[in-house]
Amino acid sequence: xxxxxxxxxxxKELLYxxxxxxxxxxxxxxxxxxxxxxxxxxxxxxxxxxxANVDTIGSWHQGEMILYIGTFSLLNAVNMTLxxxxxxxxxxxxxxGELDLYLTKPVSPLFRLTFENISPGSIPLVCMxxxxxxxxxxxxxxxxxxxxxxxxxxxxxxxxxxxxxVEVIIRSVSLYIVSMARMExxxxxxxxxxxxxxxxxxxxxxxxxxxLVLPYGxxxxxxxxxxxxxMGWRSALYGIFVVLLFTVMTGIxxxxxxxxxxxxxx
Length: 266
Fold this sequence. Notes:
Helix content: over 70%
Strand content: under 5%
Number of helices: 14
Number of strands: 0
Largest sheet: none
Distance between the termini: 35 Å
Shape: globular
Order of helices and strands: HHHHHHHHHHHHHH
Radius of gyration: 19 Å
């Protein structure tokens, strides 16, 4: 509880400093929105091309696919807003030795790295994603209950945590090796594929990879399955297991990486 209160105070100060900096350099506010908005538009066009002549994927029709696209876009938008720019800077800080400064502070270095570059310029993308989700629900002609909405939000939060953990693990590799290029290419390829294809399309070795090794395949699939009533208790338990597994792995990889880290001043 004491650590939680301290972290909340630190988060408050980080937010103040971040918004103060954005007020001085206003381009920093609008640039992420313009860049992410362009990427968002390109992704929608790509989805339109892919699914223009496809009636179904597995048991899913166009309505489910639109809901899936909106869900993955929402997770990506939350990622870009809250922690992407902070976590993405880890390899650079390791390489330059700037990580030393974070290790000397009386607060978790990962916590500060995560939230020091919150991007309010990405918030409009959250709104756009919600609009796509609402459109998908309207196409399915669903009458949502409070329980359905609650389940969906629960899985959105859980998958946002998983998204974060995967990003941290990948970038924590920079504490062990010099070049991150290959790892980032693998991440980009996996995300690009899973943003176009839902998890229900994967079988065999591909399901093993995208349901466990790089679990991008479940990130938007499970929330959609929860709201349309396709999620069984085994899938629910598996999703929770994967999140807990990656939580443990994130802690181990990060802590062991810090022990392996050679300070720039050493």
